[in-house]
Specification:
Length: 287
């Protein structure tokens, strides 16, 4: 992961580092997780938890989580997964397991919520919003804890591996090793090689080609919005169409003139879709 070269001013409120310990990391001790609260003073408001993409971090979200929380009237929690941002780096000799996203959903996120004293009652009102790998983790969390969240938003999710994803990730490796991608990412991660190769190596491994979370989708019971851009070069519409088949309550939002990062490519359309979707269930809950 890598350290931010300058203070992040667009994400406001309380920033810090939480210590969590997982059975799989007991030999290395606790993991430090970089996090930031948005609207921390709104203790009565529902919580939105943001899960970043495969090369993301707290800093790389920029101001989008803050903007969305402003529109939703929610508190927000943004954090960097282990290996990213200013969280504990991945040891360079340790490759992520094929099921690394399941570990994040079932172990890391619950441990962080425990460390930050997010109560069971708060979790039942919580919305989990993820992008790319973070969207897949969002789906896995919703499947693993079907009664412990209000709803989920999966933006450009992966539910199985497509050739277009592998081809684009292979191109990213070339850009990282031969172009300027490494220098761009280094502004946002304390150990940039930990962040990049943790993501790149597992996605390009032969073992990962058979990775799929399609079966897990049937366990999702909460309201679910899945968003995909038509110009996404990391995945096609078959990803969210598959979600709709497996989780019939899912609502789909397909965005024109939008690539893999709708919060950057089409933020107004994305915000409108999320706000309308969440408001529907918030209003229903109020009766």
């Amino acid at each position: 992961m890598n350290r931010m070269s300058e203070p992040l001013t667009t994400l406001r409120d309380d920033a810090g580092s939480a210590s969590i310990e997982l059975p799989a990391t007991a030999e290395r001790g606790p993991l430090d997780i970089e996090y930031r609260w948005l609207h921390a003073h709104r203790q009565d408001a529902p919580l939105a938890v943001f899960l970043h993409e495969g090369l993301g971090s707290v800093a790389m979200w920029k101001d989008w989580p803050q903007t969305l929380c402003d529109k939703l009237g929610m508190r927000g929690l943004v954090y960097s997964r282990p290996g990213y941002g200013r969280s504990t780096p991945r040891p360079h000799d340790v490759m992520l397991p094929v099921d690394f996203m399941s570990v994040q959903a079932s172990d890391v996120l619950p441990a962080l919520l425990d460390a930050l004293e997010v109560s069971p009652a708060e979790r039942k009102r919580m919305w989990v919003i993820g992008h790319s790998d973070g969207a897949s983790i969002t789906l896995l969390y919703a499947a693993a804890f079907p009664d412990s969240l209000a709803g989920a938003v999966a933006i450009a999710p992966h539910v199985f591996v497509e050739d277009i994803s592998v081809d684009s990730i292979a191109e990213a490796k070339i850009a990282y090793e031969q172009g300027d991608l490494r220098s761009k990412l280094a502004r946002h991660h304390a150990d940039v090689d930990s962040a990049f190769y943790g993501w790149n190596d597992v996605w390009l491994s032969a073992a990962f080609r058979s990775w799929s979370i399609v079966d897990e989708l049937t366990r999702i019971r909460c309201p679910l919005l899945a968003v995909q851009g038509y110009d996404d070069h990391y995945g096609t519409m078959v990803q969210i169409d598959t979600i709709a088949r497996q989780a019939p309550q899912a609502q789909l939002s397909k965005l024109d003139n939008c690539g893999h990062s709708p919060h950057r490519d089409a933020p107004q359309a994305l915000d409108a879709a999320i706000v309308e979707f969440i408001a529907k269930y918030t209003n229903d809950a109020r009766g």
